[in-house]
Design a protein that fits this description.
Its cofactor is Zn(2+). It holds the Pfam family FUR. Keywords: DNA-binding, Metal-binding, Repressor, Transcription, Transcription regulation, Zinc. This protein has seven helices and six strands, in the order αααβααββββαβα. The protein is an alpha+beta fold. It has a single domain, classed as Winged helix-like DNA-binding domain superfamily/Winged helix DNA-binding domain (Arc Repressor Mutant, subunit A, Orthogonal Bundle), CATH 1.10.10. The chain is globular, with a radius of gyration of 17 Å.
């Protein structure tokens, strides 16, 4: 199974090693965005760039209205269409994913390569981990084709407990 690095929530940041430099994640995401925009002949405007930064700063899914409030605090246009246009651009460019069940957006850790993001969502801490498993995508396309169906989009979100919350719950029971 090929997996990508999981996104970590603030909850996990409390427990992770001091070797993680959160600014490196943001810098890497912005560098990838700049490169992809140049390759695609697109512009990474100030609002698009800041929206991407804010999504990566949270390291957890961020809703459009949460993003709108943060942008408004910083003096950006506070109209919802401004945020939705920025989010639509970032989604189309493959720089973020939408976590449908949370109606929120998450930075894509591997925006520089084509992939399908699947998500493990912790019911307790709400951490979302992205993984890429090509076999799932291939199987879905094949099953859909058997039914004469053309698959255009897929969303797979699995909920449960992450390892830290599972350990915490087991410790509370003991």
């Amino acid at each position: 199974m090929k997996t990508t690095e999981p996104h970590q929530s603030e909850h996990e940041h409390e427990h992770q090693s001091s070797s993680h430099n959160h600014n490196d994640c943001i810098d890497s995401a912005l560098a990838t965005a700049e490169t992809l925009c140049v390759q695609q002949g697109q512009r990474l405007t100030k609002v698009r760039r800041r929206a991407l930064e804010l999504i990566w700063e949270s390291h957890r899914p961020l809703g459009a209205y949460q993003l709108l409030a943060k942008l408004a605090e910083e003096g950006f246009n506070s109209a919802p269409p401004t945020v939705y246009r920025a989010l639509d651009f970032l989604l189309a460019a493959g720089l973020i994913h939408k976590v449908e069940s949370m109606n929120a957006y998450l930075g894509c850790a591997h925006a520089d390569k084509a992939h399908k993001g699947y998500f493990l969502i912790c019911d307790d801490c709400h951490n979302v981990m992205e993984f890429d498993y090509q076999d799932i995508h291939t199987a879905l396309i094949a099953k859909a084709a058997q039914q004469g169906f053309e698959l255009r989009a897929e969303t797979i979100e699995l909920t449960g407990l992450c390892s830290k919350c599972k350990s915490k719950a087991a410790g509370a029971i003991a």
